[in-house]
Amino acid sequence: MTPDLDTLGPCDFGGRLTTGMTAHPKQDPVTGELHFFGCSFTPPYLTYHRLCAAGDLVESRGVPVAGPTMMHDFALTQNHVVWLDLPVVFDPALAGRGLPYRWEDSHRARLGVMRRDGTGSVRWYGISPCYLFHVGNAREDTGGRIVLEAVRYSPGVFATTWAQVSGTGDPASAAARTSGGHQHRWTLDPATGVVAEEPLDDRGVEFPTINDERTGRTSRYLYTVGDDTIIKYDTLTQALLIHPIRGESPARRSSYPPPTTRGKTTGGCCLSSPTARANART
């Protein structure tokens, strides 16, 4: 891409990148490294990649999983990568009829924790059946537990939502407009192997985001969008701030901190939204 945002072409890092790439890479705000993954319909089904701060692809390694699933996002902490191995699986019989994925009850929902330094294997934690399109953040708490916050779709809600959105070009955005997902938290304890789950809100939301400078670390504030609202969560006090967006349905979000206010609560959220005027986006 040029400075004027003209496309020059895809980048495969000198032929070293041989998989696709997630739409949701994570940059460590301290090291500058960019972490991402690629999925495949053939083994290896999941491949982890890491760019150094200079932009060179320095690591690619396969992650053992049972088969191809619809993994759309993942999470990063200071020392770990968190994988979302969930029961929405690839089905070649559905090819040509929208996205070729379906819910499979026999595929156990689980979260995988992998050390970023390449030591050890992936440790898997079973969770209650669900699907996650988007992660808000993950972190390691003072007790060594890993805390993940994301928008959760229950099996029944996902079935209804998927019937509406699987034939669209952007199912994640379409799912956001169904108001079926809810903000949720999982706490993984490596000492016991136990996962604690708790709902954080019963409002239909999507596209959770934080100040990117807190990626993989504790972030007090988290933002989501509803059908016609922006919601700010205070994870310390559990308080909510709800801002209505009249006549608009947000479809994308990002946050930005002004360079002179790092670490403070000032800053802003950028939203894009389809409008009725010639399908423009704002």
TrEMBL record:
Question: What is the enzyme's main class?
Answer: oxidoreductase
Q: Does the keyword Metal-binding apply?
A: yes
Q: Which residues bind Fe cation?
A: 24, 72, 134
Q: What is its EC number?
A: 1.13.11.-
What domain of life is recorded for the organism? Bacteria
Q: What are the start and end residues of every segment in region (Disordered)?
A: 248-282
Give a yes or no for keyword Oxidoreductase in this entry: yes
Q: Biased composition, Polar residues: where in the chain? A: 272-282
Annotated cofactor note: Binds 1 Fe(2+) ion per subunit.
Q: What is this protein called?
A: Dioxygenase
- Family per similarity comment: Belongs to the carotenoid oxygenase family.
Provide the cofactor list for this protein: Fe(2+)
Q: Kindly list the GO molecular function terms attached to this UniProt entry.
A: carotenoid dioxygenase activity; metal ion binding
Pfam families cross-referenced by the UniProt entry: RPE65
Ordered alphabetically, the record's keywords are: Dioxygenase, Iron, Metal-binding, Oxidoreductase
Q: Which GO terms describe its biological process?
A: carotene catabolic process
